[in-house]
Amino acid sequence: MSTRGARRFIADLLAGRRPRPFRAGEADLPELRAAITLRAAQPDGATPRAEFREELHQRLSAALATETDRPSHVAPARPSWLGANTTRRALVARAAGIATVAAAAGAAAEHALTSGKPAPSTAQETLTPNTGTWHTVSTSTELTEGAVQRFDLGTVTGFITRTDGAVAAVSGICTHLGCTLALNASARRLDCPCHTTSFALDGHLLRYQLAVPPRPLPTLQVRETDGVVQVYAPDTAV
Amino acid sequence: MVRETRRERASDESGSDEHLTQAAQLRVVSGEFYPDWEAVYRDNVDRMYRLMYAKVGNRPDAEDLTAEVFLAALRPLRVSASVPEVRAYLLATARTVLAGYWRRTLGREVTTLTDEDVLEAVPAQAETPSPAAGLAAAILEQLPEPYRRILQLRFLDSCSVREAAAALGVSVTYAKVLQHRALRRAAQLLEVKP
After folding, report:
1. Smallest Cα distance from A40 to chain B, Å
2. CA A72 to CA A194: how far, in whole Å?
3. Which CATH number fits domain A67-238: 3.20.20.60, 2.102.10.10, 1.10.8.60, 3.40.50.1820?
């Protein structure tokens, strides 16, 4: 016997409406499937409306335009046979922040494209600017064992940690679409506020809910001299 | 691309070198590229919509899901790839999008995109009968006459219960009962013969 939710779902299908959500039981599924199969054979619904096609085209145009309006060093569309690495390296070397993010996203997508399905991309890169200087971001006494601190140099933002005495730094920008990561101190991880993505403090991907796994966070060169902790980063953006 | 590779494996279990050569040849044969994202969109939007329509059975959701797939997939797709690769990627995205839709609405995956669902197999022209139409026809054929007719009238011809009842010469109440039983029988047929 079908449930009330399932009957309403089928009535909605027949009326050409969007079916209302309900908690379906396992027993509901065969009839729902049959209803969908039969309804899908109905010729009127088989083609998308011209208005829908145009509207979506405009939405996509707008979405892609916002992306290309960003800084000029965003990766150009590039045939995959030219290889991901040349583009990515050149870009990583040229600029920090958004360029790294865009290139990383591009590389992940390319991987997905060439393998035919999303595949995890695990290579972690080090962000090394062409010209940069050592910027003091903390002091040795402040950065105690196990501590995590956020830094923002204008050109680069990230997190420094001390584990087993060693200091390490990772970028604080999500490699998916560039949202700023937040420190989740209790879970000792970096959370993206945009799409439920989390990274470990060393930059490795912990969880994601995307079709293509984002790349790990790039690391930054870090050193400890004369009681201060320094990160190698480009000079202040003009 | 994935499908082609799999097909080769089935027919050829020999060494990997030979396999690679074949893959390279296939790449050349199918080495067609989209000039830009608009071409990707124009060539695939109808197919994607029809694929989704076959899985959800209603226009508003099929349109939303189609939009979701392209919005999620086109950004990374700016990096051009061959036509089969682009389609494989769109399909992988579609699979995730459809699964998410069922999770949100009914909490269970009512339909899924399987390996048999390929964009190439979806006719771009609406006049061509879709695979969904073929399956529906096969089910209807196996049903007793009154069951077959009520489902045909209600689901395929979009008649109201009242219209269907009039066409069958039965009461509205009985038409509802008939529809319910017929759908249950169709469901049984569908379950044994996926």
Report:
1. 5
2. 24
3. 2.102.10.10
Q: Which of B12, B74, B88 is nearest to B40 (CA)?
A: B74
How far is Cα A79 from Cα A131, in angstroms, rounded to an integer?
29
pTM over 0.80: no
Q: Where in chain A is the domain with CATH 2.102.10.10?
A: 67-238
Q: Which chain A positions have a beta carbon within 8 Å of B187's beta carbon?
A: 30-31, 33-34
- CATH code for residues B32-121: 1.10.1740
- What pLDDT was estimated at residue B112? 93
Give the pLDDT confidence of A179-237 residue by residue, as tens digits: 899 998 888 899 998 888 899 999 988 888 777 788 889 999 999 888 889 999 888 75
Q: Does B77 touch chain A (CB under 8 A)?
A: yes
- Consecutive H or E run containing A67: helix A50-68
Candidate from B86, B106, B158 with C-beta closest to A44: B158
Hey, how many other C-beta atoms are within 10 angstroms of the C-beta on A40?
28
